[in-house]
Amino acid sequence: MIRAAMSLVGLLGALAVVPPASAEGNSDYSVLMISRERLEVASSCEIGIYLNDQLAGRLFQEQSTSFNLPPGPVDVRLRLLPGQMPGCAPGIEDQRSTRLTLQAGQIKKYRIATGHKGLELRQANLGY
Length: 128
Description:
With 128 residues, this protein is mainly β. The chain has one helix spanning 2-17; strands at residues 30-36, 47-51, 54-59, 63-69, 72-80, 98-102, 107-115, 118-123. Strand 2 (47-51) and strand 3 (54-59) form a beta hairpin.
């Protein structure tokens, strides 16, 4: 019994020495969230998300994704991807991209929508 009490006291003492984990100190990155809601884009084709001209994610209807990115500017381009769904063959490529400037510790959420010039990002509420 005394041995168990001593080990408990030793364990509590060791825990007092370890600093608590904190997410506030690790804000050297930003979070970019992109969602695709069914009502915004009527196509059943897969949408590719390109960050700085590199394919970084793919979204079907009612999916979302997030990226941990370093602070600074990032170019985001959206494109319908060819796939197994009928009518998803590539057509004329839209080369427009949206430049976002992210700050350290910032969380930004966007949703994919269809505008006059094709697919676009619209800022959304975080919903917390």
